Amino acid sequence: xNSDELLSLYEIGEREFYLSDLSGATLSEVNLSGIDLSQAxxxxxxxxxxxxxxAILSQAFLxxxxxxxxxxxxxxxxxxxxxxxxxxxxxLSLADLTAADLRGANLSFADLIGTDLIGAELSQAxxxxADLRGAxxxxxxxxxxxxxxxxxxEADLSDANICEANFQKIIYNEKTKFPEGFDLTQFxxxxxxxxxxxPETDLSGFQLSGVxxxxxxxxxxxxxxxxxxxxxxxxxxxxxxxxxxxxxxxxxxxxxxxxxxxxxxxIMPDGSLYEGK
Length: 277
Description:
- This protein is low in regular secondary structure.
- The chain has a domain at 192-277: 3 Solenoid (Pectate Lyase C-like), CATH 2.160.20.80.
- The chain is built from 1 helix and 2 strands, in the order H-E-E.
């Protein structure tokens, strides 16, 4: 089956394409939401920016496929072969990736909010700046996985193999679960919670929406382009902090010290663009 045949059948309402051979197919920027491609061969297929929300891709072969910026929300990828697959910037929130093979996959900047990765194989995968809030990684193989810059609020990594994994400059909170005995102090990792002291820390570009940093010491922090929507910054020390280009929509700045802070181009709590005096 080729791309045109699949799209024509999908257009008239067909959704079941399990066991199809679509290796090398070009299906970029198309709507395939809800499609059943279980056990299909999609090796090296190009699905960049396509809508695959709620798609069934269980046990599909997607080795070296291009799924960058694809919408895979609530997709079933359980047991799928994603060896070396490009998932840069893809949205995999609430997707099922249990027991999936993601060795060497590129998941940098991907959204994995609430994603089920229990028992997944992620050795040498790249999760640079990925959003893993509430993700389930317990029992996963994270050998030499790159988590640098990723967000791990409420993520569960208990019983995971994290040998030689890189957790440099991750952000996490008190509900993040790491394997018993794991020493996070070997990395420059940032605990985000009330009253925390993080002076002169580079948090530029981080996703910090809705976090509670009330009373935190953020003196001379770099928060350029950070997303701080609806965050609690009441009573925080933000003196001489760089907030240029930051999004502070709905943020609570009650009692915060903004002496000498750079707010150039920042979106203020009321949604207006900062206008310097």
